[in-house]
Amino acid sequence: MPDAHVLLERDGVRLTLDGAVAHITLCNPAKRNVQSPALWRALAEAGRLLPGSVRVAVLRGEGVSFSAGLDRRAFTPEGFEGEPSFLDLARGTEQQLDAAIEGYQEAFTWWRRTDLITVAAVQGHAIGAGFQLALACDLRVCADDVQFAMRETSLGLVPDLTGTKPLVELVGYGRALEICVTGRFVHADEALRSGLANVVVPAPELDDTVSDLVAAVLSAPRDAVIETKGLLRSALVEDEGAQRAAERAAQGRRLRDLMTVSD
After folding, report:
1. Could you read off the pLDDT of 71-125 as tens digits, one per residue?
2. Vertex 197: Cα angle to 193 and 202 (nearest 5)
3. What is the DSSP code string of 35-78?
4. Structural contact between residues 72 and 63, judged by C-beta atoms closer than 8 angstroms
5. Helix pair angle (37-49, 94-109), 10° resolution
6. Helices (DSSP H) in the chain: which residue ranges?
7. Residue 202's Cα: distance from chain center in Å?
8. In which order are the strands placed within the sheet that holds 147-149?
9. CB distance 111 to 138 below 8 Å
């Protein structure tokens, strides 16, 4: 892709545009795309930089792993250069710690915007923060070597990067609890059966499969896609009556728009 389409490249994140498709790439393959507060800030900025013309955002990790999770330097006294270590944060007030974590979560929340369809192309390890980043997306296309794991609880922590809700929604409470508290790997076949993966393909076919999925999404009218995503997300929280009302209202908007176009 020409350099003119590169909107951001820093701290292990690259954002490029290809028409209505944004490509967000974790680009530190030598370290298996480990994550840090600087990377989270770059991911949050990538979301803010997306122009309104973007309909699909594709998230990838370069190299053999999607993301091996949090850089362990976060737990050392030295931490990251120019950053407070997590140990320093733990010594702060409850309000300071809450604000810091909320800032980190911004990298994981914009993927659920209703004006976008977000797709994670996941290969190799997606551990901890890497697992939660894949869970932040609407859809997950996985290579057959994928290995998901939620290791936070095994380290005495909890998953705090917005991954708990989508994990429970996808696999159910019991399976989600077991995955988190054991820290075990979820491989491709289980990911497909449980709903973590929308599709699993041989690793060499990952990019082509993602491209086919993106093309299929783009073939539908944008407003209908946005309304449908909004309806499905509201179905997770609304009761039946409210959801039926939301369907009626959304369909009314679509019919009026179609009539306007036909006139």
Report:
1. 989 888 888 888 888 888 899 999 999 999 999 999 999 999 999 999 999 999 9
2. 95
3. B-HHHHHHHHHHHHH--TT--EEEEEE-SS-SB--B-GGGGSSS
4. no
5. 50
6. 37-49, 86-91, 94-109, 129-136, 164-171, 173-182, 188-194, 206-218, 222-234, 240-262
7. 21
8. 125-127, 147-149, 186-187
9. yes
Quote the mean pLDDT of the chain.
95
Residue 208 has pLDDT above 50, yes or no: yes
Tokens read off for 89 = 């944060």
Residue entry with tokens 């896609």: 225
Burial class (CB in 10 A: 0-12, 13-18, 19+), 115: middle
Contacts 24+ apart (CB under 8 A), 41-45: 41/11, 41/103, 41/107, 42/8, 42/10, 42/11, 42/12, 42/13, 42/107, 43/13, 43/107, 43/108, 43/133, 44/106, 44/107, 44/110, 45/8
Radius of gyration of the chain (CA): 19
The backbone torsions φ and ψ at residue 91, rounded to the nearest 5 degrees and listed phi first, read -85, -10
Distances (CA, A) of 215 to 17, 40, 122, 180, 186: 15, 28, 18, 34, 29
Distance CA 243, CA 231 (A): 8
Beta strands across the sheet bearing 139-143: 6-10, 13-18, 21-26, 56-61, 117-122, 139-143, 199-201
Cβ-based neighbours of 202, under 8 Å, separated by 6 or more? 143, 144
The two three-digit tokens of residue 192, written as one number:
């497909």
